[in-house]
Each structure stands twice: as C-alpha cells, then as structure tokens.
Amino acid sequence: MKWLAKIFTKRSNWSLPYLIFLLLFVVLPLVLIFIYAFQDNDGNFTLDNFSKFISNPEAANTFVYSIGVAIITTLLCILLGYPAAYILSNRDLCRSRVMVVLFILPMWINILVRTLATVALFDFIRVPLGEGALIFGMVYNFLPFMIYPIYNTMQKMDHSYIEAAQDLGASPMKVFTKVVAPLSMPGVMSGIMMVFMPTISTFAIAELLTMNNIKLFGTTIQENINNGMWNYGAALSLIMLVIIFATNLFSDEDEDRASNEGGII
Amino acid sequence: MKDSNFIIELSHISKSFGDKQVLDDVSLYVKKGEFVTILGPSGCGKTTLLRILAGFGTADEGEIKIGGADITEVPPHERPVNTVFQRYALFPHLNVYDNIAFGLKLKKVKQDEIDVRVRKALKMVGMTDYEWRDVNSLSGGQQQRVAIARAIINRPQVLLLDEPLAALDLKMRKDMQMELKDMHRTLGITFVYVTHDQEEALTLSDTIVVMSEGRVQQIGTPTDIYNEPVNSFVADFIGESNILNGVMVRDKVVKFMGREVDCVDKGFGENMPVDVVIRPEDVYIMPPTDSGMFEGVVQSCIFKGVHYEMTVLTPDGYEIMIQDYNAFEVGQSVSMIIKPSDIHVMKKERVCNCFEGKMIDSTHVEMLGASFVCSEQPNVEGGETVEVEVDFDKVELMDNKEDGITVGDVRFILYKGDHYHLTVRTEDGENIYVDTHDVWDDRDIVGVRIMPEDIKIKRING
After folding, report:
1. Which of A94, B23, B129, B338 is most exposed, with the fewest beta carbons within 10 Å of its own?
2. Last residue of a domain, one of B347, B365, B384
3. Interface contact flag, A160 B89, Cβ < 8 Å
4. Both B259 and B364 in a single domain?
C-alpha cells in the first residue's frame, strides 16, 4: 500500500484523474476531427472536404450567415448588457445583490428549457418564428454571459480613479468616456468571447426558434454528421474551430489585463 | 476683512455616517499660500474633512468657501482644487504624459501649451524624460511624483494632499517631504495636507490643525503646538512628553512631584489643579548634586541613535522620561533640573467625572445606560434629573465585562508618571475618565463599577 500513499502525497498527482478525462474526451476527439477532416470515406488522405466547402455555395453561405448572426447578437448583447452592468456595479444606483442575481438568474436554467419556453410563448402571443425570433433567442440566452464579466470588471474598478477624474475637472459624462469605459474594456472583451464563440456553433436555438427554416453553421455540421457524412462534418468543424481560435488570438493582447482586472476569461 | 484674507473658509462643518459622528462642528480658516496640515490619529475625521473640501463627500451642516465663493453645493469637477490621493490613483490605461495632461485636455488647452506644461511639471517633480512610460512600471515614489505633477499642472487655488507619503519607505518619505516643501515655496499654492505622522506635520507645515474624535483640538504653528499644547491629548500626540498632575500654587509657581517649582505660566488662579507637560529633552540629568530639583534612580537606558532615552523613578513613585546625549547606567542615582520656561502648564480639561442622571428611587440612579446603587438621598425624588459626580480614581474597571454595572471600551490612554488616565467610552457614547494603576490596552472592553458611597449626587435646581 506504500506506493498508493506515495501517489497521493504528491500534489501534482491529484490532477491525474482530470488529465485522463482530458485526454479521452477533449484531446482524442480533436485529433479524430483533424484526422477525419483530411480523409475520404475509405480512409485515404484527401483535401476534397475543404474544396467541397469552398465550391459549395450553400455551406459557405450558411457559414457567412452564421457569423453575421453571431456579430449582430454580440453587438446587441453589448448594447443591452453594458448599461445594465454599469448600473449593477454602481453603488449609488443599485444597492442590492438581489438585482445582480436577477440579471444572472437565466444562466442557471438550461438553454433548451428556456428556448422551448420562448417558442411556446411566441406561439401563444402569435409572434411569427423566424429571423427576428432567432436573434431574440440568441440575445436572451447569451446576455448574462455579456453582463457578468463587464459587471465583474466594473465592480472591481478602484473608485479612486473616478474621484481622480472628477477632481481633475471631468464632468460625469467625461468621467465615463475617459475613465470608466476604457477601464471596463477587458470585461467587454471577455463578454465578446463568451457570447460570440458559442453563438457561431449553436444549432438548437436556431432549429427551435425558426422551425428549422433558417440554418446556422452548427445545424449544417449536425445534419452532415447525422447523415453519416463524418468526414465532411469533421472538416466543417475544423473550419469553425480555426475561426474561433483566430478570434481568440485577436483578443489575446487584452488577456493579461482581463485576468488582472476581473474579466472572467 | 475676513473674506479677503482667507482662501479656505470651513464654517461649522458636521458630518455623520449613520450613528457615528465623524465631524463635530469643525471650523477652519486658511490663508492664501499657507501650508496647513490636518493631523490626527486614524479615525479622527481628517480624511473626511479633506474629502468634503474636495467635494467627494457632502457635509450634513456647515458652509465651505474657497476664494470667497460658496462651494458647499458645487460638484468636485467644478471646484478650484486638485487632490493628490494616498494610493496615487493614476489611470492605469494612460501613460505618464496622458495622466499628467488629463486635466489640461479636459480644459481644451492647446496641444503645444500642454506639451510645455507637462514637461515643466515633470521637471518640477524630477521625472524628466518619463513622459512615455507606462504608469504601472513606475515605483511607488515615482508614481507619487506623477500624481503630484498631475495635480499641480492645473494650477489649482488649493492643493489637497491625502497622506501622500504614507505608502513610501522612510528614506524616500524624508526626501519627498523636502521636495514638497520646496514645491510649496515655488508654486505659491495653498497646500492642505492630511497626515497621522506628527513629525511630518512639524517638518512641513506653517500651521497645524490637530484633530481628535471629529473635533479640532488645537490650531497653531508647529512651535506653538509643540511647546504650548492646549490639552493633554495634543501634548501626548505631538512628540514625546511627560504629563503629570500638578497644582498651580500661585502665579509662576507650580507644585508637582511633591515640590514647588518656579515656572513662567500665570493666570490660572491659586491652588488650581493643572496638567504639567515636560518634554523629555528638556530635563537636565546629572550625577547627584545638592542643586538638583528632583532626585531619582535610572530604571532603563536605551540608545536611540542621536540620544539616549532613559526613564528615572523618583522616590515618590513618578516615572520621568528623559532624552540626553549622555548615558547614565541603570540603577544609578541622578539629579534632575528643569528650566522654568520648559515647564508647560495646561488647564485641566476636567477635574472629575460629571454625568447627567435620573433618580429611580432614593437609592438608585440611572446613568451611563445602567442603574447604579447610590447612598440614600433623602431630599431627592424619584424621576428627578440630577447631576452626578464621580472622582477619576473611584471608577473601577474589570476584565470581565459581566462584573461591571455598565460596559465600555478604552479609547485613550495617557500615562501620568505614576498612574494612567484612561478615557472609557460607554455603549451610548458617553466618556468616563478613570485614574488607575492597572495597565489596559487601547480598545479593551471593560466592565465599569462605581461604589455607592463614591457617587455624589447634586440636585440641578437647588
């Protein structure tokens, strides 16, 4: 039994269970996606899957459309979420933690449950399902992920910066544009990451809220895989991963700040 | 005319946070170009006062004028003052240049003028060529310099400094003190400086305002404050001092430590109890001689760099602290002489505890939030409001708060040579003053007991 005790006393060994989990369910699938993407049905190396994507206008259009939807969703989330986070973090305007919990509450309910409820509600009040409903559903589902990191950054912001700005002659408007807004940027960047990335790949919201009329990129991938086209599906997934990875790199320079100043990524 | 002389006029400022009164009727008038230091222990209300001056807090009562204009209701960004914050509060997203230029850019000053003034301000604080540095890469001292440059570049009428040197190490602090003093001289701006460091206050200021418990205790020049403290709090807070009970026998003669001694103070009346303050460096210590005023035995001797600090115990049981360049060995008998002009006599703030009470019946009085047993009062009726007097040494303090009749915490401890004079604050905020030989610590929670025969009751009308 001594060897067992030895394993447990070493702190770094405690991460073993998760490492195994990581290998089996994160690394291995990624490797498989990569391999599958460059294979045809018989397992030979090929680039056909990618050329099919480029030559096939339907898939490419869906891709562009998905990114469009993601951008609109993210912008709407910033528009709605930023003022909300500002009000929540301001001690003069909002004194209770209850308000914060109310804003974050939707995060606690499963995305599918919420979306199904939205469908039922729209049905009941006779709002037609379609593009508008899709955007609404996206914003509704992802808004808390925008509010929370911005709120977090603003709440941790040292109040003396605001006082210093006032002291130097900044009106409330100038205090906001010159100090609060720039200092809350790390939170906004975190929020964008948390909203933009999942909106590209969602398909459940699109399926339910548009009665399957509008296809997003996530839907395309899911359909291909459901129809047994594993290799093409893997190639599409890989393309999406690359895009997400690229946005990640784009915001990398802000990452240091975000972690220092309370962003959550 | 008052209006033309004073740049800052704070009149009757009061402020409470909830139940706690942090400023109690504070008035302060500052002349143009003065270096004023607000000095006090933490929690005395000095920072609150500065924040009210800057506009970050509002006073519940009172009026603030700067340069003759009433600014009580003016928001901070429209006040002709600038602040140097304790934690610098430099904007982390801007470099040194943009931090310093922040105020000028808001005022829409022309770019080339901003350039000139930023360079001048940086030169003034000794930070030339640091324009493009990231503020996060600067040391504490450098950040503080940038913070000062950021404030003075706006040429405010008044510069407020909130413990600006508190976060720096000793050497750096001393250097910055000198630089601040020079800056004050060159700029001609009125400085209002907040600190808890009495040495800093003595070094820098033209005028010192000593505050305690939300009230101004004394306003005066550093020499005045040091040499002629108005009460035992100021004497104890500024520098080291021996504070002893004494009696003013007649003009220019005071009796303390069992001896009548010549002094220079007068006008106290005959046989008035007073506090006597003697600075440790003002006591001359020498081998036993007939011409000595006091005799004693050295109890301890510590080398302090420039001088030795010794405590001497007199035969009557008084401990005196002495600073001298010569060391005397522990156990050695010595004589002491104090010059008449070095004996500072202060009127006693109080000679006994005085409370307002209410008789419950002829043997019980309600005061200090509790019911005390007192000796039989035949002439006083139940329900009558009375005045209660208790001598300082008749108040007993107990470790166990359940043993006392009422409860309080120790707020201020003054060593008086042979005993301690404590201020104990009850839960309803009343002060009980206690003379004791026991050692208590600041903020100790104690039970308070008074024996029935020591409670002296006086009818208010009669």
Report:
1. B129
2. B347
3. yes
4. no
